[in-house]
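Why do we care about 3D structure at all? Because function follows from shape, and shape follows, mostly, from sequence. That is the central idea of this module. The next example makes it concrete: a single protein chain, its amino acid sequence, and then its structure expressed as tokens.
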Amino acid sequence: MEVSVSLPPQSTTPPAPPAPAAAMGDKRYMILIGLNYMGLLLGSVSSSLLSKFYFNHKGSSRWVSTWVQSTGFPLLLFPIYLPYYLFKCTQRKPFSRFTPKIFLLSVMVGFLLGINNLLFSWGNSYLPVSTSSLLLSSQLAFNLILSVIIVKQKITFSNLNCVVLLTLSSVLLGLQGGGSSTTPQGLTRTKYLIGFFCTLGAGLLFALYLPLMEMIYRKVYCYAMVVEMQLVMEVAATALAFSGMAWDGGFSEMRNESSRVFDLGPRAYWLTVGFNVFTWQLCFLGTAGMIFCTTSLTSGICMTALMAMNVLGGVLVYGDEFGGAKVVSTLLCGWGFCSYVYGVYVNQKKRNEEERAKDKVVNESQQLQLQLQLMEMSA
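And the structure:
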């Protein structure tokens, strides 16, 4: 007896890009996540402290602080071109399958990053590192809301709990005002509020950037394309900062700062600028890699986890006050983050159990079908 097997019709729709874990294997995938998170850790903490160091030693140009966040884009040429032309460890030529649509999206997001960099510079110039870091932790709340809208992120109790706690944390810092003993000299109540709202604005724009990039990365086939997109975005952000500096006399101000204003001398000034350029590239590339390897919300969670490191760095390096409202705010931030991580763990464990149960049912069904086919053939 002949057994006929019908094949499903072939789809003419192009296959979606494979998930990063499936495309590169679990081991390489975890290594890539580890490297990107290490870059995010080092870049985030170091760039925040160096930016504050610049302003503490009489650096005053917010355009310069904005410019250094993106002007290190030539450093990305090394990971883009060396693997193909020097190390011969990949067969993919740089910028292969880099479509005009992806290029245009990269430019638009790059301008968004340029505005975000300026807001961050304004906020960081007025606020202590610990305060600005805790305020930026509110980007996770914005990230959750925008992720629901843009990438259809599912809302859970742990999500909402985290949003409420982080929002309360930021409001508590805002109500504290500029009366702290660690308030920089000459900082008025008005300037404190400007720094407060600029920092919140930077958190909102960055929260918008995260789900936008998750949506765009769904059309990306490999991590190399992520680095290439990052290069285009940084060029666009640098062009915006360059225009602002040219319009506002930022380049002449930079020369004047290095020789006359910066109280540690020209050499220390240019070393500060140079290290700041490098650490910001680590931070942004690590962020992009985390979004590509996981999700925008997971990337936001990882960044929130680093806020405590930024707060600790501000306290240890610059002697920022860590008492009263900041203690309560940090506890609320940690509470929200831990509850969210626990919720993710529980949900993931439940999904794994459901998948195992589903696989068991599928295997039993396949074995039953095989037995029936053998019985038919023997008959």
